[in-house]
Design a protein that fits this description.
With 534 residues, the protein is an alpha+beta fold. Among the domains are: 97 residues, Neutral Protease, domain 2 (Orthogonal Bundle), CATH 1.10.390; 131 residues, Neutral Protease, domain 2; 69 residues, Immunoglobulin-like, CATH 2.60.40. Helix content is 24%, strand content 36%. It has 10 helices and 29 strands. The protein has an 8-stranded mixed β-sheet with strand order 5-4-8-2-1-11-14-13, with no helix packed on it. Strands 16-17-18-20-19 form a 5-stranded mixed β-sheet. It has a 4-stranded antiparallel β-sheet with strand order 9-10-15-12, with no helix packed on it. Helix 4 crosses helix 5, helix 5 runs antiparallel to helix 6 and helix 7 crosses helix 8. 43% of the residues are buried. It binds zinc ion (ZN).
């Protein structure tokens, strides 16, 4: 995901409380959703089949769902039944009702009385309706036309869907939408049905068999112009833009094919059935919904559209297919998407572009550190995940991957990235899992590297001055925690890169007298050059 440059309204940020303070002893395997989206009122009528495997003996459990509020917003549950699905298509008429399930509802969820045993798998059908307070944005686009877009990050799916709203619980999804036939509907996965019904209605059904986290479940409905811009290794690539933006939109989003080709070659097979890039009403600059990426409506015509596309497309592998186990590991999404974008830009525009981008990112990390001096693995954001949309998760995370690449070399770096994706696609991973894969591939102990860059705040703050003896230079680490890293330098105008390992407070290097040292000429170290005297 990429932030817009504007600050989120405070009111909205206040909504991001942690709904998962108490994790439920269930593993959701499947959501079968049927939404009726109405034309003249914002009310949504929903039926959700939720298949769960119980991880313990339980009398009752909670599905997250934002309940009814004073006024019109919130979701009211009318009925819960246990059902058995007859077909795997998720069609709503293909279930057998087994029994009615007693339930209670409060502002945070719906509590089902189930008396289930550990290991059992059951499917519950929740019937509900209401005006979503958030998460499913029913509004008008900049051309004044009515649109419907889900916008779930970080845990806003439960405003419209009864679910376990946490990235660690991934599930396959069927999405059915009943809507006026003047809308085009796009959602995750493969479109298996698009049927016109009596009464100027349209029934559209998408199915995603790969397990995805709730944050990237997506439904969009609007008047769209649709372009099939490319096929990459059998994966069709589509652009969905508002018809008024058709010409520029197709041109801008049409850059996706080349990006998809690069990442597929570098990382591994694209994890989904299609890739759609969609102009939308997301509150973010871009939102990496699995196989149905949403972009801000102003993204069409934006100068940075190529980088935005690359960032969100990279997320399909990292964030969507391989999902962080919990929010403190969100750099596995955002740091990866940030650096994969730089790698694409380097591939397309050359090494100087990479250096310029890394320089910009380093400035952002240094500026952020002054405001908030926490490690990348930040466990202090509990309940307010928008705090994690910061330069630590994005730019510093990207820098860590850059330094890792330089440390292990391009060949082992990509081998590790491919192995990590192959091992965890469709699943969850944390930072330790990534480290273990990189260590196995490279045969190196990366303990110190991960500890200092991911679990320790800050970065090396270096000072340098001529030593007392002629021809020596003294390099000092000024920051509190000592780092260990290779420091590259050149002397005078000689382009030869020299390297010294810095690990102590003070390192002395010997060069001939009266020469000038340039440190880190190739932009390979995240550091500050301090002005303090030794
Ligand atoms: Zn992102």
């Amino acid at each position: 995901m990429l932030k817009k440059l504007i600050v989120l309204p405070l009111l909205l940020m206040g909504l991001y409380f942690n709904t998962n303070a108490q994790r439920q002893p269930v593993d959701v395997k499947y959501y079968g959703v049927f939404l009726t989206l109405l034309e003249h009122i914002d009310k949504v009528v929903g039926v959700a089949d939720v298949s769960v495997v119980f991880e313990d003996d339980v009398k009752n459990f909670r599905l997250d769902l934002h309940g009814p509020e004073k006024g019109d917003t919130g979701m009211t549950v009318g009925k819960v039944t246990e059902v058995r699905r007859k077909l795997s298509t998720g069609m709503m008429d293909s279930v057998v009702q087994l029994k009615v399930i007693p339930f209670k509802q409060d502002s945070k969820g719906v509590y089902l009385s189930v008396n289930a045993r550990k290991g059992e798998k059951h499917t519950y059908r929740v019937e509900y309706m209401g005006i979503p307070k958030d998460g499913l944005i029913v509004s008008r686009n900049k051309f004044g036309n009515r649109t419907y877009f889900t916008d779930n990050w970080p845990d806003r799916a439960h405003y419209w869907l009864p679910c376990v709203d946490h990235p660690s619980d991934k599930a396959a999804v069927d999405i059915n939408v009943l809507i006026s036939d003047k809308y085009t509907v796009v959602a995750n996965g493969l479109k298996v049905q698009d049927t016109l019904l009596k009464g100027n209605l349209r029934w559209v059904h998408y199915t995603e068999k790969a397990e995805i986290p709730t944050k990237v479940i997506a439904i969009g409905a609007a008047a769209f112009a649709v372009d099939h811009s490319a096929d990459v290794d059998g994966v069709p690539v589509y652009s969905y833009v508002f018809p008024e933006n058709k010409e520029q939109g197709f041109k801008d989003y049409g850059k996706a094919g080349e990006i998809l080709r690069y990442f597929t070659k570098q990382i591994g097979p694209f994890p989904y059935e299609k890739l759609a890039n969609i102009q939308s009403k997301t509150i973010y600059g871009g939102m990496e919904n699995a196989s149905a990426i949403f972009y801000a409506e102003e993204s069409v015509g934006s100068k940075s559209i190529e980088e935005l596309l690359a960032h969100e497309i990279a997320h399909q592998w990292f964030g969507d297919a391989v999902t962080e186990t919990d929010w403190e590991h969100v750099w596995l999404s955002e740091g990866f998407a940030t650096y994969m974008t730089l790698l694409y830009m380097e591939h397309k525009y050359g090494a100087d572009t990479l250096i310029e981008e890394l320089k910009d990112d380093r400035k952002k990390v240094i500026a952020f550190e002054k405001k908030r001096n926490t490690p990348i693995i930040d466990t202090t954001a509990e309940g307010n995940y928008t705090q994690l949309l910061n330069a630590n998760s994005y730019q510093k995370g990207g820098w860590v991957l850059h330094m890792l690449r330089r440390q292990v070399g391009d060949s082992d770096f990509w081998k590790g990235i491919r192995a990590y994706f192959a091992a965890y696609s469709g699943r969850n991973a944390n930072t330790t899992d990534f480290k273990a894969v990189m260590e196995k591939v490279t045969g190196r102990d990366l303990g110190d590297f991960f500890r200092q860059w991911l679990y320790t705040p800050g970065m090396p703050e270096l000072t340098m001055r001529p030593g007392g003896e002629t021809g020596t230079f003294i390099i000092k680490q000024q920051q509190e925690h000592l780092f260990s890293f290779p420091l590259e330098y050149t002397i005078d105008d000689d382009p030869m890169i020299r390297k010294v390992i810095i690990k102590d407070r003070i390192t002395i290097i010997n060069i001939r007298a009266h020469h000038t040292i340039h440190i880190d000429p190739k932009m390979n170290l995240l550091f500050k050059y301090g002005s303090n005297d030794l």
